[in-house]
Amino acid sequence: EQNITPYEAIGEETLSHLVDSFYGKVQKHPLLSPIFPDDLTETARKQKQFLTQYLGGPQIYTEEHGHPMLRARHLPFEITPTRANAWISCMKEAMKEVELEGELRDFLLHRLQLTAHHMVNTAENAE
Ligand code: HEM
Fold this sequence. Notes:
Its cofactor is heme. This protein is mainly alpha-helical.
């Protein structure tokens, strides 16, 4: 009845498992692994912080790293539409794996799709 945030609805534990599962898939993805560091510990830690605040939880990413400026932070990497789709497909698999389902899953996926699309900074044929 109280308005709880999507962060509270998903819960810290599920969010953490989601991010770990996601980077496990990124690490194995032929289009994604080459642009990520070999050790994704720190990347996963930052992503947990980011998604916490993205979903209405405490602003822990900003407290440690400042304004997310996500598009700017992604400019060093060639993000094509195909790479954005690969990112989303890893996320969908991770959602399945941690059994994030229903409206919450659809809500989060929709928002991530918009954000992923916004990160595209390189045309397909530029690769
Ligand atoms: C960092 C790729 C979409 C959030 C990174 C890094 C790469 C990357 C290569 C650097 C990893 C590191 O050095 O630790 C991509 C690709 C995407 C994508 C290919 C496809 C569209 C997204 C989306 C979000 C996101 C949709 C948020 C919902 C982040 C965050 C970081 C990050 C929070 C850490 C930034 C920091 O260093 O503080 N991403 N990303 N990314 N990405 Fe993405």
